[in-house]
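PROTEIN SPECIFICATION:
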Amino acid sequence: MDDVSAILLAVLVGGVLAALVRLPPLLGFLAAGFVLYPLGVQAPPALGTIADLGVTVLLFGVGLKVDLRALVRREVWLTSSVHALVSTGITAGLLGLLAVLGVGLAAEGGLRSWLLIGFALSFSSTVFVVKVLEERGATQTLTGRLAIGVLVVQDLLAVVFLAVAEGTVPSPWALLLVLLIPAAPLLRRVLVRLGHDEMLPLYGIVLALVPGYALFSALGVKGDLGALLLGVLLAGQPRSAELAKSLFSIKDLLLVGFFVSIGLAGLPTGGELVIAAALLLVLPVQALVFVVLFYLARLRRRTAVFTSTVLTNFSEFGLIVAVALPDDLLDPGWAAPLAAAVAASFVLPSLIGDRPDRLVDLLRRWLPDRPDERLHPDDRPLDLGDAQAVVLGMGRVGYAAHRRLTEEYRLRAIGIEADGLRVADLAADGVHVIEGDATDPRLWEELELHHVELVLLAMPAHDANLATLTRLRAHGFEGTVAAVTQFDDDLAEVLTGGADIGLQLYEGAGAELADRAVGRLPPTQA
């Protein structure tokens, strides 16, 4: 079997095995690389290109969801900056301790190399974090928006760092990149005129790779940042969400190359594994620093903890530093222990499971609850008023259900939606909707539900609907719960889990289509 065939088979088996034990498939891809390396399988040259393409398209997709106003908020830029400084100092101190103990590379380096490693490991992995958020359907929740904002600020810091450390500066022609800003309306008009076929994802890929990656790289600016900024130029355009969705499968396939290539980079020696294991001790400290900083920004304890756990991993930027910096700045031997630490940092958060909620309770003594008026405006408890029906998830399905409940059945209905931009759009159209995260256990502890007769679960992620159903019943809600699902097995699961009514999405679409068609028939035929 040739190397390419072995890699394809291994990543498929690894992904399936990871899914069977309810872990993200990307961990299976990582494991596949580590298993193949000692078997002598070599990464083909194209694998690196595929990995780079995946990261570039991913960052373009991230840009499509970025709200620039969020980046200038204190809880984003100040948290990112302070965390980078504190984390750098902690990691450098740990490496200094290892040097005193005479441990390998740490003992051979000095303060400068310790600080370089510390700064490189102070960042979170954009690839991993966005993948986790997408799998949870949480990219537009408050946690998702905070995490993505932090990632963007970290990417900007990385660009400045590499430029200074490598002693390179962008080309003077790079100033012309500002012309992309007045070109944005043209790019948006082209997007509006595209259909819903293959031209839509093709347009996104070309923008990410040509005026994004290639143009920025040619002018001495980090190409990944270019892809991100091109996405930002289209963010907020009505079809930007559709464009991001059209790139979803393509991006996921390309990112398989990224994760398996980490494992194929090689296995560390015993001494390097010791350093990697020691570096992992920094992760819980980094998480705690994030929690404290978010809490000081007036976020609720749960929001601070959940956002922090999402961001608690090492970035692939650590590998870039080990490879890109000159040998006189950093020993290239750091590549192996850093690769092991980065890979392990992806595994550990996936093993946490439901422990973030337990951590929220454990921190109650040191981070007490605040009065509602002292909380961040985006993180205050919800008020359902006198609503009789609650619709969780105000996408197309939830919106249609909300309209039917209010217009035809004359119920007092309210929608709860995690996407702040979606909430603003619906509220502007007069829809009774509020922003909130239905997966938050505290939400159901605080809400008054005695006047609510119906809860409709219409969130895009099945796991979120199922978890919310469980919490509703656990808190004694005796009203009717209805749920919509995309697949038949999901429908069976929600009905078993306590839903009174369930509807498979396409079955419901067919019935609605028939109702509308019959409604257009002449009275004698109808």
